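[job 0417] fold request received: Sirohydrochlorin chelatase
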Amino acid sequence: MEAVLLICHGTRLKQGRDEALFFAERCLRKIDVPIKEICFLELASPSIEDGFEMCIRKGAKKVTVIPVLLLAAVHAKVDIPEKLSFISEKYPHIQISYGRPFGVHPAISTLLWERMKQSTSIMGDAVVLLVGRGSRDPDVKRDLHSIAIQLCGDFPVSNVQTCFLTAAEPSFEESLMLAGWGRKQIIIIPYLLFSGLLLNGMKKSIQHQRKMTGQDIILCEPLGYHFILEMVLHSRIMEAMKDPSFCFCKGGAYYVSNHT
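[job 0417] inference complete; emitting structure tokens
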């Protein structure tokens, strides 16, 4: 039998865990496989190992594993594949397919535009800061830049800049200070799934900038578990189920990064 296992990031906050479970369960309802399970990478239960074993106990012979993560960074490219490598040694008779995170997808620009429109009336010369969590992995910078380019191409936004909260440059604080030169409006989109400590830090920086410059600075809502992301996740599940190139290999290869 076939199974789908979704791996959410995990958080100690019950609300965050419940939101992730609700989103994953909603998406799995549309997947026609007999076995469907949800687990967490860290900070919550069940673990990846527990989730996989639940699939096996229910009779799974093939497990499609999907990381419910925004971008392909260390978690998606190293941490999860290491766990899957251990699991594949323990259960060599089980076929494992490992799909992609949300990544760069043409539908995401629509979600970003919706967040902007919900927050303010957009001026023609507005600067948009697309703010990622950050990673030392260069693919994160590349992918967020590609998403910014998509937003400019799909909607009437002429200036979208990318920056990061941790572990990558340019930093959010630096970009916020520089973005306002000659511009009256700054629109900030947190490229995050949910509110948390990182968002609280952004609010403090924005308050300081407003006091210093008097600029119109708008902080949009995070992406959240939006129906557009549900659609993207569904597409990631289906491609990993149908495409043999997504089969997990013990050597660490896990998905074909040039898929679109």
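[job 0417] notes: The domain at 106-219 is CATH 3.40.50.1400 (Rossmann fold). The longest helix spans residues 74-90.
[job 0417] exit 0
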